[in-house]
Design a protein that fits this description.
Elements lengths: L17 H7 L1 H4 L18 H14 L6 H13 L2 H17 L3 E2 L16 E2 L1 H19 L7 E7 L8 E3 L10 H12 L13 E3 L1 E5 L1 E8 L12 H18 L4 E7 L3 E4 L1 H4 L11 H12 L6 E8 L5 E3 L5 E3 L6 H16 L2 E7 L4 H14 L2 E4 L5 H10 L8
Parallel strand pairs: 7-8, 7-10, 10-13, 13-14
Antiparallel strand pairs: 1-2, 3-6, 4-5, 8-9, 11-12
Helix pairs in contact: 3-5, 6-8, 6-13, 8-13, 10-11, 11-12
């Protein structure tokens, strides 16, 4: 059982809480390997020493504080510390993250164990914190604070009334509109004594039908996501965590699962997403679509959709014998044709595909245009800076899908 230490506040930790540290260390915990783009390692580990260095950098550059005066005060204190005091402070702050359940050290390590290369890992608590923080930031930029469930064109007879009235039909919820019901009876009978209601007089409130949606987020993690001088994978991971947080808190009837596609494709738990880095190299979109369909076919929801975040054209294909065929140059006819077959299958199953493109490569644009035309979905040309706004607005404003 993990032990939790409780202690009084002392000036040793500069009054910094674990939440302060987590707010400033989001990019460290969600690192995608961009700093080592020339030799990315999908199995890279975050170490105890790396965590302490990240804390120090956050304090020095002021990213941990909204108050500039507070940031300057902390920086001055750090500059006056000797190396031994500084090392002790950083160890204390890093240990605080372990004690409060945001970080775990598999070997039970912490301050004073002398294990500089000891691996540290994020916990479910830290993933929830980072998802909430990203979602809050994104909703703030959109000028919104809370949202309800998905609206559709259809009306149902629920308890919450938000539409017009209609005659009662067998099977409807008896959400009676008293005023309209009595009006119909009066028009039929007039003021001739006791009012007698008939079946045809019954009028009920309608409410907007709120659908449930099953979503598979297909996330491209090929090496192009950190090449060309830009980190695209870290923002994509942040948006994935924010979307998961939004669905869990605002759309409890919805589901979301995540598929990574690279040389092949695999499903991952959202708790694993934070510490993933890019790799392997190629973009096997077809395998991602096959896996996404398999997942969605397990869901009993009104609406099913695939959200695909990518910056590269399909460049790999798993052949019938299990070998992976790869071609990174141009639009390979075999790769494209087999990928479009899966897009067609999605259309036949009523699965919507919305694509968020982080690049404007002509070959990619051409491919996405074909996907969009075939499945009647949407395509968004966006950047790592605006990806979250586009994706969340699309998810929350989807009102055109008719459910029968």
């Amino acid at each position: 059982m993990r032990r939790v230490r409780y202690s009084k506040f002392t000036d040793d930790d500069l009054g910094l809480s674990a939440e302060d540290l987590m707010r400033a260390l989001g990019d460290f915990f969600l690192d995608s390997g961009f700093q080592d783009w020339w030799n990315p390692n999908p199995n890279a580990k975050q170490t105890w020493e790396g965590l302490k260095n990240a804390i120090l950098q956050a304090m020095l550059d002021g990213s941990m504080f909204d108050d500039q005066d507070r940031a300057n005060e902390i920086r001055e204190k750090l500059e006056k510390m000797d190396p031994e005091e500084l090392e002790k402070l950083l160890g204390k702050l890093a240990q605080k993250l372990i004690d409060e359940g945001y970080v775990q050290a598999p070997q039970g390590g912490g301050e004073g164990e002398g294990q500089m290369d000891m691996e540290v890992q994020t916990t479910d608590k830290s993933v929830d914190f980072l998802g909430f923080k990203t979602l809050k930031d994104l909703l703030g930029s959109l000028g919104r604070s809370s949202f309800g469930a998905h609206d559709t064109r259809d009306l149902s007879t629920g308890i919450e009334a938000s539409g017009s009235t209609k005659p009662y039909e067998f099977g409807d919820t008896m959400n009676l509109d008293i005023t309209e019901t009595l009006s119909h009876a009066l028009k039929r009978q007039g003021l001739t004594g006791a009012l007698e209601l008939e079946y045809s007089d019954l009028q009920i409130h309608q409410s907007e039908y709120q659908s449930s949606c099953a979503t598979v987020l297909m996330l491209d993690c090929s090496h192009s996501m950190i090449l060309y001088g830009e980190d695209r994978f870290t923002p994509a991971k942040k948006v994935a965590l924010a979307l998961a947080q939004l669905i869990r808190t605002q759309y409890p009837g919805d589901t979301m699962r995540c598929v990574l596609f690279h040389d092949t494709a695999e499903e991952i738990r959202m708790s694993e997403l934070a510490r993933l880095q890019v790799g392997p190299y190629y973009t096997n979109t077809r395998d991602g679509l096959i896996l996404a369909q398999r997942i969605l076919n397990q869901e009993k929801k009104d609406m099913k959709q695939i959200i695909m975040i990518t910056d590269g054209k399909p460049s790999a294909l798993t052949l019938d014998d299990g070998r992976v065929y790869k071609n990174a140059f141009g639009l390979d006819p075999l790769v494209i044709s087999r990928t479009m077959e899966e897009v067609s299958r999605c259309k036949r199953q009523g699965i919507l595909i919305n694509t968020f493109m982080l690049a404007t490569d002509p070959a990619l644009v051409n491919f996405v245009r074909q996907v969009t035309q075939l499945c009647k979905g949407k395509a968004y040309f966006t950047t790592p800076m605006t990806l979250g706004e586009y994706l969340l607005m699309d998810y929350m404003n989807r009102k055109t899908r008719t459910v029968h």
